Amino acid sequence: MSEVAIDRIFPLPAEEGIGDARIAESYSAGAGSPWLRVNFVSSIDGAATRQGLSGGLSDDADHRVFDLLRRLCDVVLVGAGTVRAEGYGAMRVDQVSQRARREAGMTAHPVFAIVSASLDLDPASPIFRDAPERPIIVTTELSRHDTREALAEVADVVVCGEERVEPARLVAGLVERGLRRIHCEGGPHLFGDLIAAGVVDELCLTVSPTLEAGVASRISAGAAPILPIGMRLAHVLQADDTLLLRYVKRA
Ligand SMILES: NC(=O)c1ccc[n+]([C@@H]2O[C@H](COP(=O)([O-])OP(=O)(O)OC[C@H]3O[C@@H](n4cnc5c(N)ncnc54)[C@H](OP(=O)(O)O)[C@@H]3O)[C@@H](O)[C@H]2O)c1
Predict the structure, then answer these.
(1) Lower CB density within 10 Å: C or N end of the chain?
(2) Which residues, including other chains, have CB under 8 Å from residue 137's CB and lie 6 or more apart?
(3) Tens digit of pLDDT for each residue in 231-245?
(4) What secondary structure letter does DSSP report for 49?
(5) Which residue among 115, 137, 159, 191 is best mutated to probe the pocket of ligand 1, counting the most ligand atoms within 8 A of its Cβ?
(6) Which fold has domain 7-249?
(7) Protein residue with its CA nearest to atom 6 in ligand 1
């Protein structure tokens, strides 16, 4: 099957039909260390889901970049709501990505880190059973001790806050483990908390060319930060009518 063509239309000069290496370069430009990147897809009118899932908004170009971003990170960070809704399995990348990662001196697969206060996660699920790297569960002091112990059999359980996971502690905890390239795949409530805490360095946003209307959530939810956070447009990729935007935090 031929790969979907992706053009880079900003910054100029534009480049047509760029390959994975060039796309990866574009996503790596100017990234600091540590670095927290967030990736979402949204319809033009701001829906983050169709029928409760992000999949309906996604297309081949979005899948291609989604996979590439996993290739570039040390850890994939996801809120438990998204893990449950989207039915995540073990965090594995394909063979091409495994090879690229090994050549870059990384582990074959990124670590999977899940944020949860309720710990409503099944220790027997493939997330843990088939994990190539031991997952991390980031939780709170108030989470149930018996559940925590059961999950500690299959994952590293890290406490980063009393009632809610505090984003600054979460990031520090991952960095302490050498996981400096943090890639968050959502969802909206986790993203809202990360924004409010001022720890987001980058947002990658796929704009899917549909109007959805309805009551779907936006890509962020929950408490707002005291001031809006200004972002700078770092690149724009285009595949047919889909745009793949990369915004980084203003210095
Ligand atoms: N468009 C996209 O690209 C995209 C991406 C991701 C998700 N989604 C969609 O978003 C929907 C899920 O939304 P959501 O807002 O529920 O997702 P979410 O942010 O992944 O999940 C919320 C849950 O994550 C945990 N959590 C998040 N922040 C926390 C914190 N600071 N401290 C403690 N726990 C925290 C809690 O889990 P517990 O309940 O276990 O305590 C919370 O209930 C799904 O429909 C999914 O398809 C869309």
Answers:
(1) N
(2) 113, 114, 116, 119, 121, 151, 155, 156, 157, 158
(3) 999 999 999 999 999
(4) -
(5) 115
(6) Dihydrofolate Reductase, subunit A (3.40.430)
(7) 187
